[in-house]
Amino acid sequence: MSRITEAAPAGSAPAVEIRGLVKEFAVGLRGLKLRAVDQLSLTIAPGQIYGLLGPNGSGKSTTIKLLLGLLPPTAGECRIFGVPSQQVTARRHVGYLPESPDFYRHLSGRELVRYYARLCGLRAPALEARIETVIASVGLSAAADRRVGTYSKGMLQRIGLAQALVHDPRLLILDEPTAGVDPVGTAAITELLLGLKAQGKTVLITSHLLAQIEDICDRVAILDRGRLLLEGSVAELVGQRERQSLLVDALLPAELAELRAWLAAKGRSLHAVETPRERLDRIFLDRLGEQKSPRV
Amino acid sequence: MKSKAWALLAVTVVLASAGAALDRMVQPVWSAARARQPTLRLESATAGLGQGVTLALLGGFRALVADLAWLRMYVLWERRDLPACDSLIRLVGTLDPRPLDFWLNGARIIAFDFPVWRIEAEGGYERVPGSVQERINREQALAALRHLDDAMRFHPRTPDLWVERAGIELNRLQDLSAAAESYRRAWAEPGAPYFAARLHAELLRRVGRRAEALAFLIQLHPALPPDDEGAAAPRVLERIQELERELGVTAERAYRPALAAPGRP
Amino acid sequence: MPDFNASCLRIFFIAQNTAREAARQKLFSFVLILAFALVLGARWFRDFNFGAPELKFLADCGFGAMAFFGSALTIVATAQLFFSEIESRTALTLLAKPVYRGEFILGKFLGVLAVIGVFCGVLTLLLVAVLWRREGELMAEFPEAFRSGRSVDLGTVVIAGGLQWLKLAVLAAFTLLVASFAQTQLFAIITGFLVLVICHLQYLAQDAYARSGTWLGRMGGAALAAVFPNFQLFALADSLAPADGPAWGDVMRVVLYAGGYVVVGCALAVFSFRQREI
Asked: In angstroms, what CA-CA distances link B261 with A83, B223, B225, C62, C119?
């Protein structure tokens, strides 16, 4: 198990710091306990996109809830920018998008964002301008006056992002943000997150769709049954340092044989010859020709 | 489970402690309200109105249930169902004794309607002997007076009950002396009608207590507002002068109305 | 410790959202239906030709409707508006903001209080209007019965409506307390109705236990009387006659009584909800 942790720059508190976190749930009447998070420790530096990955039931959402102070830990501690998670003030600089979000159906999109903005302390005159900005940034300006109960799943995801961003948080926590979202929506979310990183925000994403997250995360931690399985930068984890990939024009069989012989003379092996594959989602997006069109 | 049990106990203790303190503060209010409420007899309510009403009574809808009972009594009154009407009249008084009209109308129905129904049930006025009719009238009149006695427990200073009582004593029992006394009791209460005073004096006159009647009217007249038709001050003056003639009061000693300020003595 | 002004604002916003949610669940059309029923009921009583007592029937119908429908509305609305947040997980999103759990509970309570306040207020105003108009018609028809003037004290009617609202506020606080630890909405609703019946009957239980010869019986009666408020107290102003109007001192005691139970109920709900795992 690799546990490569990156220390936060000197003089700045880590965005997230988790130490020895344990969470147990009582199940049944006989005092049996289910350990959902088991001695988890990790640190997220500011300005990163950090992926918390793992299969269903690995403890990702429980970890998020512990981090947000929605559940009390059985042992260990969490801090957000140095403030203990159990304190309400820790959430001042956090924006949260839950998994499969459901919002107040009786409110319009604009009313919803305004409600959360006010709860986060935004007041007039900055309030209305900020609301319009975030709604435009998620591409819902045309549907902002419709009731949330009429929104599609993708629109719910986007209004969820809007409410998470409205108060300009330093840390954004997204729980399964691309679950059930089509490639166009996923690409839009990816672009948004990269934009937030460019602004210096820290993003924590949880997902069980490892391939989707690989492209945007700087560092990842992989959980399994509540335990940290693997942690480190994406490049370090996925790269095979002892090998290289070369992209060349198509070779004839004779040329291929010659190359193989040349490598053998150098004491090297040609492990695989493959036709390069374009990613299907990339082909899909290119064909559509537009990554940002809102779908209603 | 253990922690939940302790938490439930803590909640109960806090509620009980706070409730005990709050109950002490509000005890005088509750004592007064409780005294005005007759004991709720669910059996009679259920028997008179059916099972469903029990829940309504337990839910705190006594006044509304009393109203509905009264409406039901009206329906049964049209069918001349004496036992049902009688029990409902009494039940309504138990459920909600505050409305005076329930007591007054109930007494009238007992005193005036029930005798007619009973006599007709026994064969009609042509066939039932006079002595039986008289007995029935008397029984129902006395029952009505007992009903008014119950009412006075909840409305001790109400002239209307005494006026009703006087009407029954006069018209059903032909007891002029008792009626005169009831009219006097009515007049002694605040808000009594002027006719109660006049009828008191008239009944005293009819039973031969003319001097008493005269003294009462002489005391009454100065306080009657001259511009109030209901007070009938000129008519009272006429009665005084009639009584003075009957009693042979001399001109020197006759009553001379003074310019007194109107208002009740 | 939270900034007091900011905390009050957050509570207000949560209450506003709660009331808006209830209003957009067709509450107002529900109130209109009741109002229409009251007007129809008023016309029906005319057929009996009661005279002055008709006013009592009207008032009792109005207060009865307020008590019956108001109690059902209070229990169901409190439970539903609370559990909708838990079941749809909007409570997660909300509590992930810098919002204290106590603010959430108080905001929910105040939102429900506003909803039942509108309900009681509309019914009270309608009742006042119906009584005033009908009394005018009866005074013209039966002048002798009204020789002392108007028989209905409209101020007492307004006080009675206010006391009903206070009673429902206490009921809402107790329902919220149950909801704060209940696992299902159905349990909270059923327990709310049970609390309603107990609170109306607790004086009977008190009497029964007081007559009991055993110390255990007397202790049980005292405990029951202390834990559950006496809802019969809120019928203080049900008699309409000016002479029967409640004394202001009595009204203030009942107001403080209700306020005390509301504060304790809400405080316990906050305490319970803070332990709840969402």
From this structure: 85, 7, 8, 44, 51
Q: Which chain B residues in 47-106 lie under 8 Å from chain C, judged by CB atoms? A: 58-61, 63-64, 66-67, 71, 74, 98-99, 101-102, 105
Across residues C249-263, what is the average pLDDT? 95
Domain boundaries, chain C: 4-275
Q: Does A107 touch chain C (CB under 8 A)?
A: yes
CB contact under 8 A, C9 and A118: yes
Q: Tell me the count of A-C CB pairs closer than 8 A.
A: 69
Burial tier of B188 (Cβ tally within 10 Å: 0-12, 13-18, 19+): middle
Q: What is the mean pLDDT of residues B182-196?
A: 94
- How many angstroms separate the CA atoms of B201 and B206, rounded? 9
Rounded to a whole number of angstroms, the distance from the CA of C195 to the nearest CA of chain B is 11
ipTM: 0.86
| Partner C contacted by A91 (CB < 8 A) | yes
Given a cut of 50, whether residue A192 has pLDDT beyond it is yes
Looking at chain C from residue 29 to 88, which residues have their Cβ under 8 Å from any Cβ of chain A? 88
- What is the average pLDDT across B166-177? 96
Question: Considering CB atoms only, which of B7, B28, B98 is closest to C239?
Answer: B98
Q: Tell whether C25 is within 8 A of chain B (Cβ).
A: no
Q: Which residue has the higher pLDDT, C48 or A133?
A: A133
Check: CB of residue A146 under 8 Å from CB of residue A122: no
Residue A8 pLDDT greater than 50, yes or no? no
The answer to whether the beta carbons of residues B246 and B220 sit under 8 Å apart is no
Domains of chain A: 16-238 (3.40.50.300)
Segment among A50-64, A105-119, A154-168, C201-215 with least mean pLDDT? C201-215
**What distances in angstroms separate CA A36 from CA A58, A97, A176, A192, C98, one per listed residue?**
7, 21, 18, 31, 25
Q: Distance between CA atoms of C261 and B265, rounded to whole angstroms?
A: 50
Distance CA A154, CA A179 (A): 10
Touching check for C28 and chain A: CB below 8 Å?
no
Q: Which of residues 112-171 of B touch C (CB under 8 A)?
A: none
